Amino acid sequence: MALKFTKMHGLGNDFVVFDGVRQNVSLTPENVRRIADRHFGIGCDQVLIVEPPISWNADFRYRIFNADGGEVAQCGNGARCFARFVRDQGLCDKDEIVVDTDAGQLRLVHRSDGLVTVNMGIPKHAPAEIPLDIADEAVSYEVVLDGNAWSFGAVSMGNPHAVLRVDDIDHAPVERLGPLLERHPIFPERANIGFAQVVDRHRIKLRVFERGSGETLACGSGACAATVVGIEQDEIESPVQVDLPGGSLYIAWEGRGRPVFMTGPAVCVFEGEIEL
Ligand SMILES: N[C@@H](CCC[C@H](N)C(=O)O)C(=O)O
């Protein structure tokens, strides 16, 4: 079957987006891996499928698949690209869109400057909700990796995140520690691993080793998680500019029980058709 797709990115975190409203899209994990393959496929960090809503009060549903073929619940950069996609494709002309995801409903707003703001929901801190296999909640946890003790903060943004503080982002051990912590048994569903350097009270630098995709040029939910963890550890305060290798996101969070707001760009690169 030949499927129409759109290649998009949010700060270099790239996506192959399928319109599952006007065409029938059903992908196996093997299909996803082939689409995401940068040599034998189109190439992307995640595959997104836009579908009709499952709730009465939503406009759409969108589904997210990592490059390794696994379906996951949350993708911040993908959410902004989803908003841009439904507008560009003539599927929705609203300025505010409600979308069903496996992490609950998200609200997205097209701003007049072309950026998109996403209400990313209320972060979850309890270990069982992340999930993190540690009995008591704390702002900082310890783990031994490669024979050394590392401390990290953890939070769910609808997907599991660990955030480690580093002094120099350019020399952060992302490639070495990322895969070890992503698959560490304390994270029963694996985790996205962020490495954050605090620049000042309103600015951090961040690199993220993403579950199921490896290091990406940006991770929207990772930027939210690093902001939440930094605020909880009293290192930073809202609003926060998060500088990622692919560019900057703007994150606002007013504290426990309140949602996180993420603002950034979404770009369409090209359209095509793939035979599966
Ligand atoms: N790139 C995304 C996150 C995609 C999902 C993640 N790798 C996971 O497995 O939870 C973002 O921008 O948030």
UniProtKB/TrEMBL annotation:
Q: Which GO terms describe its molecular function?
A: diaminopimelate epimerase activity
UniProt keywords, alphabetically: Amino-acid biosynthesis, Cytoplasm, Isomerase, Lysine biosynthesis
EC number(s) given by UniProt: 5.1.1.7
Q: Which reaction does it catalyse?
A: (2S,6S)-2,6-diaminopimelate = meso-2,6-diaminopimelate
- Site-annotated residues for Could be important to modulate the pK values of the two catalytic cysteine residues: H161, E210
Q: Where in the cell is it found?
A: Cytoplasm
What does the record list as coiled-coil region(s)?
Answer: none
Isomerase as UniProt keyword: yes
Give the pathway annotation.
Amino-acid biosynthesis; L-lysine biosynthesis via DAP pathway; DL-2,6-diaminopimelate from LL-2,6-diaminopimelate: step 1/1
**Top-level taxon:** Bacteria
Q: How does it assemble?
A: Homodimer.
- Which function does this protein serve? Catalyzes the stereoinversion of LL-2,6-diaminopimelate (L,L-DAP) to meso-diaminopimelate (meso-DAP), a precursor of L-lysine and an essential component of the bacterial peptidoglycan.
- Family, as annotated: Belongs to the diaminopimelate epimerase family.
What is this protein's name?
Diaminopimelate epimerase
The record lists the organism as Methylocaldum szegediense
Q: Which gene encodes it?
A: dapF
